Amino acid sequence: MVPAIAGDPAGRRARCIGTVYAIAPGTGRMHLADATWTDLDEADVDVALLPVGSTEQHGPHAPLGTDYLTAAAIADSAAEAAKHEVVVAPAVPIGVAEEHRQFTGTMWVTPDTFRAYVREAVESLLGHGWDRVVLVNGHGGNVPAIEEVAARLTRDHDALVAPFTWFEAVDVDLPMGHAGAVETSILLASYPELVHEERFAAAADDGADRWGDWVGSVDLAQDSAAFTDNGAVGDPGEASADVGDTLEEQAREALVSLLDAVLDRSTTTPAHK
Ligand SMILES: [Zn+2]
């Protein structure tokens, strides 16, 4: 356990080492892993968040955990800002990322395994009566899988499960890339200790300008190693903590609005016509 740092409202510095807050009844935000079951049992949980990400190369300058760290940071931030009682589950750290398999340290599971794991993890949350769940995703390769899982769970249960991918909810004048300016900015804002700024120039020089090996509308590359030497796509030199703060704010606001809507909707599926 790491104490929260005064003057750092997002708790972001401590968050890079571990979760910092235990249950805080009445504050609207709880971290499942830090709470006791008895406290959670007494809490009046409105919605649960399950961060999902990936452990995969992010160039020479950013950590392999980028996608689950950013997902967890945005889930935490939204939980803190929400008007409702939100419980944040531990992040799922390994996702659909075989496309980075040639880079040391990358871990992945197949889409089948990932869908099954996320589905069962959410079903365990539903079993506690928490019938509204949002999957907070930080990895592009997980997007089709979380959309399928959310649809399946919503159809099969009296529940509402929604997929949310943070970088689809932001709008800044920078290309997404991979470990490029967008992701590096949010890392600089949330986990600055994990970013190697002195490697930005090399990351851009030996990386790629765009994702894929496109011939017309067809991407011939299955693996990122086919088009980027060091794994990066885009220029992290354009990143800044200020842009990262803007990104985090945009993602947080989008997620808070989604939580409002999820709580506003019915958990029952439409009747047959
Ligand atoms: Zn990423």
Automatic annotation (TrEMBL):
GO terms for biological process: riboflavin biosynthetic process. InterPro entries: Creatininase-like_sf, Creatininase/forma_Hydrolase. Its EC number is 3.5.2.10. GO terms for molecular function: creatininase activity; hydrolase activity, acting on carbon-nitrogen (but not peptide) bonds, in linear amides; metal ion binding. Its cofactor is Zn(2+). Keywords: Hydrolase, Metal-binding, Zinc. PANTHER family: 2-AMINO-5-FORMYLAMINO-6-RIBOSYLAMINOPYRIMIDIN-4(3H)-ONE 5'-MONOPHOSPHATE DEFORMYLASE, 3-DEHYDRO-SCYLLO-INOSOSE HYDROLASE. This is Creatininase. It comes from Halanaeroarchaeum sulfurireducens.
